[in-house]
């Protein structure tokens, strides 16, 4: 089995590009959904099948990553199997706060790397493509 779909939530177009490029290089069959803030991500999740993974930035306008996690926890009974924070924040308090959510499985520093995707796939119980 493989990762079939990933929702990337990040307000920076360059980071979105890097994520999509890295995901396609890791496994071109993965469906990549994109949101530029937490509100867009919630809209996607309300209208799409729950993805295998969500990659989430912390610092975004409109609704940041922590606000998204709060709403996501309240609104959705079924969560993506792996939610991974991908951020430029080096603050231990951000990592601790993110990992308090039972569905947040990983905390990575930008940029997204194939090793991050490999870890996510292992968390899903999938083998590397």
UniProtKB/TrEMBL annotation:
Q: Which domain of life is it from?
A: Bacteria
Keyword check for Protease: no
Q: Which residues form the Response regulatory domain?
A: 5-125
SMART domains listed in its UniProt record: REC
Arranged from A to Z, the UniProt key words for this protein are:
Phosphoprotein
Q: Is Phosphoprotein one of the keywords?
A: yes
Q: Which residues carry this modification: 4-aspartylphosphate?
A: 57
Q: Which PANTHER family does the record associate with it?
A: RESPONSE REGULATOR RCP1, RESPONSE REGULATOR RCP1-RELATED
Which protein is depicted? Response regulator
